[in-house]
Amino acid sequence: MDRLFKSRLERRFADQLTGPVRQRHDETEIRIAAGDVVAVMTALHDEPDLHFQFLSDLAGVDTGVVMQVVYHLWSETTPDWLRVTADGLSREDPRVPSVTFLWKGAEWMEREAYDMFGITFEGNRDLRRIYMPPDYQSFPLRKDFYLPDDAARSPGGGVRPMERTQAPSTTPTTALVRRTPV
Amino acid sequence: MSLVPGLGLAKGMALTLRRFFEPKVTVMYPEDRRDVPHKFRGRLQLLYDEWGTLKCETCFQCAQACPIECIDMGGIDTRGRYHVHWGAPETYGERREESALRRSGRPVPDPAYRPFAAVDLGALDGILDEYDHDPAHMLAILEATQAAYGYLPVAALKRISQLTGAWYAMIYGTATYYSHLRFEPAEASAQAAAVAAHRPPEGAYLAALDAALGKRRNPGKPARA
Amino acid sequence: MTVVGKSWSRLTLPGKIIFTVVPLLLVTTFVAVSAIVLLGPTIIDILAANLPIVRFVVAVTIVLLMTIPTAFLIIYMEMKVIALMNLRIGPDRVGPFGSLLSVVHGLKVLMKEDFTPTGADPIVFTWAPVVTYLASVMTLLVIPFAPGIFGQDLNLALLYFFAIGGLSVVGLLMAGWSSYNKYSLLGGLRSAAQVISYEIPLTLSVVGLILLAGTMSLNKIVEQQSGWFTDWYVFQQPLAVLIFFIAATAEANRTPFDLTEADSEIVAGFATEYSGMRFGFFFFAEYVNVFIISALTVTLFFGGWNAPFPWPWPVTLDLDPGSLGILLLILVAIVPLILTIVFAAPVWMISARIKGWQALIVGFILANLFIVAVIFGLAYVGLDWVAGIFWFLGKTYVFVFTFVWMRGTLPRVRIDQLMDFAWKWLLPASLLNLFVTAAAIVVARSVRP
Amino acid sequence: MPTSVPHQSTDDPRVTLDRDLGVFEPVPPYPPRTEREAEFYTLGDGEMFINMGPQHPSTHGVLRVVLKLDGEKVVDLDPVLGYLHRGVEKLCENADYHQAICYTDPLEYVSSLFNEWAPVLAFEKLMDIGVPRRAEYIRVLSSELNRIASHALFLGWMALDLGGLTPILWSFIERDEIVDMLAALTGQRMLFNYFRIGGVNGDLNHEFMSRLGDWMAKATEQIEAGNTLLNENEIFVRRMRGLGTIDTATALRMVMTGPNLRATGVPFDIRRAHPYSVFPELEFDIPTRSEGDCLARYLLRMDEIKQSLRIIDQCLHNMPDGPVMAKLPRLLRPRPGRAYAAVEGPRGQYSTYAISDGTDQPFRMRIHDPSFIHLQSVGLMMPGHLIADTMAIMASLDPIMGGVDK
After folding, report:
1. Residue A65 maps to a domain
2. Does C87 sit within 8 Å of B22, measured CB to CB?
3. Nearest Cβ partner of B19 from C85, C89, C92?
4. C410 to chain B: which residues are within 8 Å by CB?
5. How far is CA B182 from each of CA B147, B153, B186, C157, rounded to the nearest angstrom?
6. Nearest-CA residue of chain A relative to B101?
7. B and C adjacent (3 or more CB pairs under 8 angstroms)
8. Is residue A173 in a domain?
9. Which of C80, C89, C410 to mutate to test the interface with D (most CBs of D within 10 A)?
10. D234·B95 Cβ contact <8 A
11. How large a percentage of chain B has pLDDT more than 90?
12. Is residue A109 part of a domain?
């Protein structure tokens, strides 16, 4: 537990923190609003006394009340894991800025979070489903997901061979084989 | 890479040629079988004791402990009255569906216990609170429940299982182990006792046996009535 | 039911077969004998008048038939040798040491469903394996196996070989194009590029040898290498052998140049969509190709059917078994018996646990092996073509083993490295070899005309 | 895209199909969902799509990659995942803490112990459980053995994807010995399920130790012998050198970890960077290489095997006495909270983020898998290389589809 790091964070991100900085074991946790993600992450990544170059993990969380996006960062300036929680996303339309401008490798993790929770990452160039079939309509890791009801909304119950995958919309669309750019 | 082109290739070729003559590692499976380690966990079999009876006592502990829930077992309890089953339906019924429903904020139906009489479980919650929902005090909880209802209703056992997190089969095992706990009202038990009274007493058989054999049996344990 | 029907139904299955076949055989024999007696002279006259055609037909038939056991043998060899190099045992269930497994593979291929994918061009798709297979088999016609054992002795045998051998790429290209599959197409085009690139160093590497030999007839080339093994062309053209062998590996699509069917890249290349016997043709053609390439290497550079050393004393066996008369029959009857007892006796005496009948069986097997060995030894000494085939096949299979060995060891090269190697290294090297050879010949002639 | 034109089968003229089943166009039959998808599925001049997988001999599982080719050159590619998706995170949410570990076991099935270790560490943090020192040493010992097994298999796969038949079988011999001794220790050959919350399932036994001793005596020699087949092979080295090069900055941007990152010159190893278990007490180096190409990644793993052998040796010498399992209640109910733990596996960082809501089941369990992360950088390395190199690059990153698809 790095007490100094806690005070450093409190000083640096005084305006952005939406809750107290919590520490337990070897983890330091800060909570920010979804709108501040870009500023906070850029500061964490770029500033030499923070220098969080490693994005260890990016996870979506559904608490049943709100949605969260949780980032875990590593830096050589502190022995702790830094957990940044973008808190308070609405469950109806969760939106958060993408961090692919800092870590391009976050692209697939964001796609996964989108696929599982329906969290929209603004700025991710390729935000589409990654695990579930394209015609799948619900978000399996949400707390209100219940398999017999929710999967039934997707044509074929979400289980289809790749050739038969239908258009995501309910009305059938014509085939779109684009040969050359017009 | 070496300076002489092709030397690496030649070395590799020499190595394969050397291995060509080396002893082989293949195990000729159906003919010779490898020894399985003592600790190997993959055996799926029931063991028999030296008299040829199954060692399994249908205690359901394996089915409860199985982390991936691949064991499905059924059996009759020691008094031959209730059929107990533990397997995928119970597991999913108790764990998966329930927790999924609970978390998604939906009501949790319990069709498995519908045939049993509904009882008012208000008293039970008080008992559980008193024992801090701790499964370690299971016997005390069960005794208190029996004191409150006169017997152990299935719905109450189910509720205890839900709230304490102890497996239903474990509670059931505890309840059947102690002879003072019963699963039906005292009247039903009395009826069963009356039926038992019609049978010739066990002592009569033993006395006849003693007479026939002309010697005394071990007098240590009195015969149970 | 009539009496005939009743007695027929009482027969067992072998009985039914015998009762059907024996009368048929009798009738056929009678007809055939009378036909031969009546028409025999005429047929013989016709055949004698067209002896070259007869020879050609017989040669083609034999060569076609020969390819199948050859392919079986090489497939088995590949399975077994690579397995042993991998520290496995390999096939060991079907036949002794699993040697019949490739035959079973052949039967399996015959029985499998032979389908044409939707969108394929059925005609080209069907003919592609035939073209590939025939192109391989036809090159076998000019290879001399032994003195007097060859399909055709062409003056331009070498040219014929390269011309026909190059045809097989047409088959691969047809397969790749007609399959309606992009992997097949890539495989077909790769094979076209590869084979065309490697034809050039392959052919050029042999030109030096042609200059030395002064002929393109394979028979004559082999005859020029008779005598001690130092007379083989490998010692006069070492660079050419290397170039020829590498280029031939690429021609035969073998590892490390097996890009046309690189399974980790383009699934199975041109053969992706093939199944059943059509795939079997490709499969056989590949292994026949290995044999042919090895055979040609041996023929050109390693003395062909010549032994590495001349037989030290000339032997002519003037055995005339007919002169023995009735004694021959007695010998044939008695010698195996005597040999069996002779070989069984020591086996029986080795251990008290060996029973008499067991010793007799072992003795019988040993005696048979001994007789076979004696017959082959006599044949080797007395008949030059037996010796020729022995040495030719022996040397050829050494090269086949090398191909298999390479397959067990080497990874695959990339397509651009393959092309680089052909055009930047092999082609200049083969030209260099050609010029040096030509210069050496000129110098040698001017010194000692 | 149901076409109503009846299509006659070439194979059997009597059969007519209602759709053109023989032709599979990789272009999806619906409008593009993102700009990137639209850009990818638009063909330029002379380009074509080729659909690699999910049934392809060398995609290391059921991965489907749509390649956009210009001749044999790869212009762009689009990996399509999900063929092996099992929803492990969802399953873990509906299982109690002990059961959840079993679900993580088959994620990356060639390095199961690391998959177990990350959630076990996270759960122990969540419940404030201390692990006996002997258990920690056994964990390190067995997991380093597993690392060697995984790397040995990688070396073989790498060669197999380049067309070499033999190395894969030799490395399976190596792996088989390790797996057999781990079976003597853990009771299973592949999905060990050995780490428990608070310790390990069972102490070291004689069978394991004797097998380990036999193997250690010849391990170095065997691994060296297997390497001469490829390390000096000109064909192999020429194909691998300079292929799929990635520099340090890009590797960090792609959030790569493990050997793939260390091959670019960053000595980042969680065993040292964020120590867990007893690694601070053990001596070992972190091998790095600066080239960042496939050959560097290949050779780096070979160096790591040697370091693992060193660690195993130290573990055997320093192994303390004592229990292998902490005293735990039968029913685990951590108080509400969050915990994050990461371990250094053979492919990189395996980590678990667990949230407890006070019940006996994790409220949310996030599993971070290195294969998933590394596979996406294929899209960065591949363009410009030939189709033959797709498999070499992919193999050099060593993704296991069980982990990619979770």
Report:
1. yes
2. yes
3. C85
4. 9, 12
5. 11, 9, 8, 102
6. A146
7. yes
8. no
9. C410
10. no
11. 0
12. yes
Chain D contact set for C403 (CB, 8 A): none
If contacts are CB pairs under 8 Å, which of residues 165-184 in chain B contact chain D?
A: 165-166
SS (H, E, C) chain B: CCCCCCHHHHHHHHHHHHHHHCCCCCCCCCCCCCCCCCCCCCCCCCCECCCCCECCCCCCHHHHHCCCCCCCEEEECCCCCCEEEECHHHHHHHHHHHHHHHHCCCCCCCHHHCCCCCCCCHHHHHHHHHCCCCHHHHHHHHHHHHHHHCCCCHHHHHHHHHHHCCCHHHHHHHHHHCCCCCCCCHHHHHHHHHHHHHCCCHHHHHHHHHHHHCCCCCCCCCCCC
Q: One-letter amino acid identity for D190?
A: M
Q: Does D76 touch chain C (CB under 8 A)?
A: no
- Sorted by where each starts, the structural domains of chain D and their CATH numbers stand as 7-80 (no CATH), 88-405 (1.10.645.10)
- The pLDDT of residue A97 is 92
User: Half-sphere exposure (CA, 13 Å, Cβ side) for C374?
Assistant: 9
CATH superfamily of B61-185: NADH-quinone oxidoreductase subunit E (1.10.10.1590)
Report pLDDT for A181: 35
Domain that holds residue A67: 3-128
- Rounded to a whole number of angstroms, the distance from the CA of B26 to the nearest CA of chain D is 9
CATH number at residue A76: 3.30.460.80
Tens of pLDDT, residue by residue over D154-182, are 888 888 888 888 888 888 888 888 998 99
For residue A159, what are the CA distances in angstroms to A152, A155, C104, C420?
10, 8, 40, 48
Per-residue b/e over D152-171, b at no fewer than 16 CB within 10 Å? bbbbbbbbbbbbbbbbbbbb
Rounded Cα–Cα distance for residues C300 and C203 (Å):
12
Q: Model confidence at C45, in pLDDT bands (50, 70, 90)?
A: confident
List of residues 6+ apart from C93 with CB closer than 8 A? C101
Instruction: Give the model confidence (pLDDT) of C143-177 as tens digits.
Output: 888 787 777 778 888 888 888 888 888 888 898 88
Q: Which residues of chain D have pLDDT under 70?
A: 1-24, 226
D353 and chain A in contact, CB less than 8 A: yes
On whether residue A134 sits in a domain, the answer given is no
Question: Per residue, what are the HEC states of chain C?
Answer: CCHHHHHHHHCCHHHHHHHHHHHHHHHHHHHHHHHHHHHHHHHHHHHHHCHHHHHHHHHHHHHHHHHHHHHHHHHHHHHHHHHHHCCCCCCCCCCHHHCCHHHHHHHHHHHCCCCCCCCCCHHHHHHHHHHHHHHHHHHHHHCCCECCECCCCCCCHHHHHHHHHCCHHHHHHHHHHHCCCHHHHHHHHHHHHHHHHHHHHHHHHHHHHHHHHCCCCHHHHHHHCCCCHHHCHHHCCHHHHHHHHHHHHHHCCCCCCCHHHCHHHHCCHHHCCCCHHHHHHHHHHHHHHHHHHHHHHHHHHCCCCCCCCCCCCCCCCCCCHHHHCHHHHHHHHHHHHHHHHHHHHHHHHHCCCCCHHHHHHHHHHHHHHHHHHHHHHHHHHHCHHHHHHHHHHHHHHHHHHHHHHHHHHCCCCCHHHHHHHHHHHHHHHHHHHHHHHHHHHHHHHHHCC
CA distance C85 to chain B (A): 4
With a threshold of 0.90, tell me whether the complex ipTM lies above it.
no
Is the CB of A144 less than 8 angstroms away from the CB of B100? no
Q: In this complex, which of C120, C407, C411 lies closest to D162 when CB atoms are compared?
A: C411
Q: How many CB pairs under 8 A join A and B?
A: 15
Pick A162 or A125 by higher pLDDT.
Answer: A125
Domain count across chain A: 1
